[in-house]
């Protein structure tokens, strides 16, 4: 954990979950074998090109005993040394039910990341919330659409292209909003009367 890159990773995780984890807990989590293995693969340019770090309730994630990866799911690991709910995945085994962060390698496969540099463009960091689609819809509808409508100068694009772009953007935002409302409403079907069956 002594490399500048892993110190940077540790700081980003603490900042993401600052009210729920301490620096010591994050360092213990990163030192656990399962977690360390995934970050080593990420930094060495091997299979893992992205790593997600989650903080979720213990009942919803696969946990690890004594830092060893679970035999049934090598993609997920969590630190048990500190009783925290931090866990790590490649992004396809743990659903995003709460805020999480990710580290994405931008270098080509097989090319290792310089771990002596704390931060550069070889590893991107970001955070995801559980309501990603709702956030996207709000950003498009409330931020980008008004900004684009207010813009008068579109460079070499003529008025027809501008209108077509704005129409398609609004259509996409409306479709996204309708899909989200449909998902949120929840359809409840009643069981038919026994006489009908």
UniProtKB/TrEMBL annotation:
Tree of life domain: Eukaryota
Protein name (database record): Uncharacterized protein
